[in-house]
Amino acid sequence: MEKLIIVDDEASTRHGLKVCIDWEKYGIEVAGEAVNGRKGLELAEQVRPDIVLTDVKMPVMDGIEMAGQLKASLSEVKIVFISGYDDINYLKTAMQMSSRRPCR
């Protein structure tokens, strides 16, 4: 079973993502939640998730910065960004981060 963590500053969004999707049906275990990118990094280091579902814009550390640091330490992690913002620059940066492959 793959492990997923959810990183979002909105408690209602985290809860909705956790309970409104039948993750087990897809072979995914929700292994934890975090309220910002810094907490998400800490959780990822502990849990070693296969997938990180994260908001783009959050206080303390945003999802884009977190993704960059995650890719450096957990190169195989898949990152899925979610956002209510319509800023095209965030979208472009998020897409670059999620598709970045580590150098070997």
Within the largest sheet, what's the order of strands? 2-1-3-4
**Main β-sheet description:** 4 strands, parallel
Which stretches of 5+ consecutive residues score pLDDT under 50?
A: none
Q: List the secondary-structure elements in sequence, H or E.
A: EHEHEHEH
What structural class do you assign from the helix and strand content?
alpha/beta
Termini gap: 27 Å
- Average pLDDT value? 87
**What percentage of the residues does DSSP assign to strands (E)?**
15-25%
- Using only CA atoms, what is the Rg? 13 Å
Estimated helix fraction: 40-55%
Give a count of the beta strands, DSSP E runs of length 2 or more.
Answer: 4
The rough form would be described as globular
Q: Number of helix segments?
A: 4
Please provide a written account of the structure.
This protein is α/β, with parallel strands linked by helices. The protein has four helices and four strands, in the order E-H-E-H-E-H-E-H. The chain has helices at residues 11-19, 37-47, 63-73, 88-99, and strands at residues 2-7, 28-34, 51-55, 78-82. It has a four-stranded parallel beta sheet. Helix 1 (11-19) links the parallel strand 1 and strand 2 (28-34). Helix 2 (37-47) packs parallel to helix 3 and helix 3 (63-73) runs parallel beside helix 4 (88-99). The longest helix has 12 residues, at 88-99. The protein is globular.
